[in-house]
Amino acid sequence: MVAVPTIVVAKPKVAVAPLDGDSDGKIADIVVNAADDHAKVVRPEKVSKAMETLSVTTFNGKGLKKLRTNLEVDLVIYGTIEKTGGGKHRLALTIAGKGKKKETVTITYKSTKTLKKDLSTQLRQKVSTLLGGDEDPDDDDAPPKKEKEPPPPPDRRHDDDDRSKKHADDDRPKKHDDDDRAKKHDDDHPKRRVADDDTSTRKRHGDEDDEDTHHHRRKHKEGRNPLTQAALWLDIGAEVARRTLTWKGGGTTMPPRVGTAAAAGRVNGEVYPAGFDKVDGAGALGLYGEFGYTLGLSIKVPGTSSSAPIKDGHYAIGARYRVAFGSSSIAFGASYWRRYYIADRSALMAGQTLDMPDVDYTAITPNILARFAATPTIAGFASLDVPLIFSSGDIQSATSYGRGKVIAFDVRAGLQFTLAAHYAVAVAAEFDQIGISFEAGQNSKAMTRGVSGATDRTIALTATLGIDY
Length: 469
What we know:
By secondary structure, this protein is an alpha+beta fold. The chain has helices spanning 26-36, 44-54, 61-71, 115-131, 159-170, 177-204, 208-214, 445-448, and strands spanning 13-16, 40-42, 75-85, 88-96, 102-109, 232-249, 258-271, 285-294, 298-300, 307-325, 328-343, 359-375, 378-385, 388-391, 404-420, 423-438, 451-468.
């Protein structure tokens, strides 16, 4: 029997960064799977976390070096996805090694079915090219080259002994040939133990390498997107809002239209208590709240020089369940919700009347919030609230316009931009509408003034500064 020695060649290690234009992370998964054929892969989620920790926002020389060192990888793959028309897309990747070593891969595709195969072939060639040859002398993290030491001078003193030993070996009986073959067979085993030692070393390191190669099957806390999957979010800022109350009906004594605009302060918060360790399971349960209040708002009483101060505000507090997918998330929840617009008439003079009903809406509000990562530093969000109103305040009292059916909804959408690690700004637009269809009961103002319905509408623009963890 002849034992054939084996040499174990360790796979290179590469990091795949989130791709610009890959909102759902599907193309990044294809890049990961293609690179996985030839290397051990660190997924985009972990790279994104490292970029946040290291404050890396661009893939320049210093940023790439920080990532390679932090993630302990040989290469970093990053790139963009663009639409080219006709239903086609272009994937442009850059594979960066040490120093200025870089290779590019560009593939135009219409379907992702063949993308992985084509990409795997090209990545194999580029990875081989980058890892071959000498270190780049421009790379300051490349090890210094050692000068060759001259060979030692030959020792002539033992030449006669060596020749005598050679003659003695030639005269030995051939019966030692079997021993030599046995020794050769034994010498093969240490070489095979190279593979065993390498395997045992990797086993002693736990699942670290296995996570890099196969972690696309699992979800890791360090791979979360800081904008769309944060465990804690708190932002403070301002909003500019316009509120109008309009009427429907055919009576000649219909009340006047109401309209005011003012700036207000706003606070939003969201926390997932167990979400600092993981985004699923108990980490998906969270609490949230919002508060807005207008300062210095008043309304002029028609036909007079007097004004009545207005208390105008809104708030909500509730719970959510968040589902994370890729670098995005969707949260479902419900809250206690209140919005009010109440005039202070105590300072009005005798005979002065403000012909405007106060409103004080309270509701239980189911809602949904979606957050989508556009890039590692930009995310979009949109929310829908459907208040199930059980009280409207004075406008629906027996001495005012009376009972009626109420339908309400609130829509909000905007963008978040990362400023630095744990800091971001958010800009958003909000549209809130509450519609009331009055029953026009006996002796109600809806009947006496010919009012069939009212629409209470608020449009707002907000800008806030937030922290996330």
